[in-house]
Structure prediction request, 363 residues.
Amino acid sequence: MTSVELQSLSKQRRLLVTGGAGFIGSNFTHYWCQHYPNDRVIVLDALTYAGNRRTLVPLDSHANFRFVQGDICDRPLIDALLQEEAIDTVVHFAAESHVDRSILGPDAFVRTNVVGTFTLLEAFRQHWMSSDRPEDYRFHHVSTDEVYGSLGPHDPAFSETTPYAPNSPYSASKAGSDHLVRAYYHTYGMPTTMTNCSNNYGPYHFPEKLIPLMCINILMGKPLPVYGDGQNVRDWLYVEDHCSAIDAVLRRGKVGETYNVGGNNEVKNIDLVQMLCALMNEMAPNLPVKPAESLITFVKDRPGHDRRYAINSSKLQTELGWTPSVTVQEGLRLTVQWFLSHEDWWRPLLSEEYQTYYNKVYA
Prediction:
C-alpha cells in the first residue's frame, strides 16, 4: 500500500455529499456518520420531490454533520462550501434518476445531471488547484448501469469496458456526466473515481420506484402495475452494500478508475413483484386485499424499456476486496419490514403532485 493510500485510510476526511437527502445519498450519509464519526459530513440537497429532510433528522445532533439546502448548479454556493468547510472529498449522488420522469420531462435531467455535474467538477477543480493539488483529494461520481444500454438474455454482464449505449433521456444524461468526470481526470489530472451501480433498494426509497411502489400499493390495496410482459431483468443491489462499495473505492480505489457495483441478484420484474407479494402476505396480516398477487396488473410498456441489465463486479471484488453481503431474499425481507414499520415516513410522500405523476404514467 502506498503512502497516499495509508494517509487516505487514516486521516479525518471532510466530505461534501450532494443529493444526501435522497434515497442512496441519505443511506450513504447515515452509513458514513456511523462508521466514521470523526469525519466532517456536509450534505447539500435541493430538496426536490425525491429529497426528504426528515430522513436526516436523526443526524442533526451529530457534531460533525451539517445540512445545506441548495442546488448543485449554484456555483457561488458550491465555491463557498468547498472553501469554508475545507472539503477534501466530494461524493456526488445528486441526480434526477427516474426513467419515467425523464420521458415526461427530459430538460430537468440535462440540467441537473449534466450541467450540475459540470458545475461541481469545475468548482472542485479550482478548489483542488488552489490547495496545491493534494493527492488524497477525491471527487467520487455515482452513476448507473443504465448508461451501458440493454442486454440480451445470454449476453455477458456489463463490465467497465462495455461501450456506452444509453436508451432513455435519464441514462443519456448520466452518460454525459460520466464522460465529463472522465475528461476532468484525463485533461486536468483531477483525482476522480466513479462507480456504476445496478438497481438499488432498501430504506428511504421514494415511492415512484418499483419496490417501494409495490410495497405501498399492496398496503393500500391498489393495483400493482407491471410494465409489458414483466420479463425485464434487473440486478438488485441492497443499498447498504452499495454504500460499503463506495467506501472501498474512496479508501482504496485508484484515481481515474471506474468500478461497477452489482448485487449478483438478477431477477425478472414479475418474479420480484411476486416475491414482494409473498412477503407481504406473510408479514402483514391485515392487508386490505389478499392474496396480494391478485393485485398484479400488466400495463403498457414504457418507451425504450431496456430488457436486461447485469453487472460484472469482478474488478471491484478483485482489486478492492469488496463483495455484496445481502442476497435479494434477505434484502427484500428487510425492505418490506422497513416499509411496514415506517408508514409515518412514506405516507406524507403520496402528495397530489405524486398522484398526478402516477396517473400520467400508469393510466
About this structure: The first helix runs from residue 3 to 10.
